[in-house]
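[job 4417] fold queue: 2 targets
>>> target A
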Amino acid sequence: MQSTHGEMINHRDSVLAHDISRIPLAFLPTPLEELHNLRQLLGDNCPRLLIKRDDQTGLATGGNKVRKLEYVVGDALTTGANTVITTGSAQSNHCRQTAATAAKYGLDCVLLLRGHEPEHINGNLLLDKLLGATIRWSGKPQHPTGEIDAMLHTIADELREEGKKPYIIPLGASNPIGTAGYINAIEEVYHQLQAMNTSIDRIIFLSGSGGTHVGMLIGAKLLGWDVRLEGIMNSGFETLPAKIVKLTHDTIEHYNFDINVTENDIHLLAAAGTHSYGVVTDLERNAIRKIAQSEGIIVDPVYTGRALGGLMQRIQSGEYSSDEAILFWHTGGTSGLFAKADDVLGN
């Protein structure tokens, strides 16, 4: 649905079946392509491979968070907020897209980034600054549970004292409102596959803060689509499963969906040999080079590159059969690649 700049789209989404506030941000539907060359490169036992290009959502180099922000910032505007606050790493794609959304809709934006400001400004952090966000630094790369949330609320209180009307967006926009973006994304790709007269067995993607994963899971259930969803983790190996379960329950409750999702529906994988968040290994390097040099598609090392590396690893170890069809979901993150040049090139 088209809208002029700054207008809200108040409509009834087909799968959500709820009246919901949404702002126009993403270029949709995003492309769905075959990976013929990569499949040939990976050998005779490689399944059929397709890719969903959510790096092509637009808005400051695109990415999956744009879909979520259509709903979350839409909700912020309905509350009368004039400032959005969110958090992430120094190279957070979510923060970059939040800053771009705020700029587009005339909102102030405060980003609480983990750690200290680096000596060199590049990648997403460069874009955050160009987009006009106010950046604060947490002072530590990692924080105990709840500490970042407390810092966000302190910032919100300070802004209220200044006469501002702040709205806190959680990490990755991963809350029941944000998951709506990927509930609809699953319907989008479902209809694209129908138009192609193509069926798939699995969808594989990076599972980070959980909102993309939960939206896909619920969307598939609402459609009655029996497709296996496999999230490859880039961090939170011990805590993410519980976060996925909780967010799924909270989202079903928020929208009063009449569906049943169990822990058996949640498939989370760790790409073997990977390390903690943001550490680049040969797994990511190989995946980045292979898809770039066979398909001309660029992926980053922290998010999509790790998920693609995990997929390629499982193909080469025989986890998937050659008669399967797998959809790999490119969730974006390309601008973060430029902050990891030496790591990616192995220098």
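>>> target B
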Amino acid sequence: MIPFETAAVFFSASVALALAPGPDNIFVLTQSALHGRIAGLLVTVGLCTGLMVHTAAVSLGVAVVFQTSPLAFNLLKALGAAYLLYLAWQAFRAGASKLPQGQGAGISPSRLYGRGVIMNVTNPKVAIFFLAFLPQFADPARGSLVLQLFALGAVFMVATVLVFGSIAWTAGLLGDWLKRSERVQVIMNRVAGLVFVGLALRLVTTHR
């Protein structure tokens, strides 16, 4: 359905986009350093679940609403920023004793996974990006556009898992070393809080 050459180009572009500094990979980096490699991988799975939602939205035409409706765009943007500020508030309140000492201990896998899902789904820029990016690699002459877009979304998710998984693993190793000091634990939480605030501000100032 999709030529190998087209899939290869799309995969390369997806890897490059995943490597570019942005809210999602910074989020994975921070969570991995704070809570361990497994936590970062769970967040990554959550983010990819969010990508499934965006892929379905683009494939079925729902994302057009967010491109044409300022109200829908701003509402989703506000929800995403509010969630990031909530995470920042939690990070600022946390002390050394509240930081996990093992791989993802102290915070449930479902919460880590949920953070990734909400982080991705409430980012309207991802929906707009998918709407502009995926169709460029689809060809009506090669069959169902819906199936092609779903296939491209799956390729994008594979690239995301590879890149973000590597980030989670590397940051987790750094986090294991940093968490030996209680003072550094507190500093890491403060840094995480600042990162969340920064991501929220970036999201709020995003334009279509």
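[job 4417] complete. Note on B: The radius of gyration is 18 Å.
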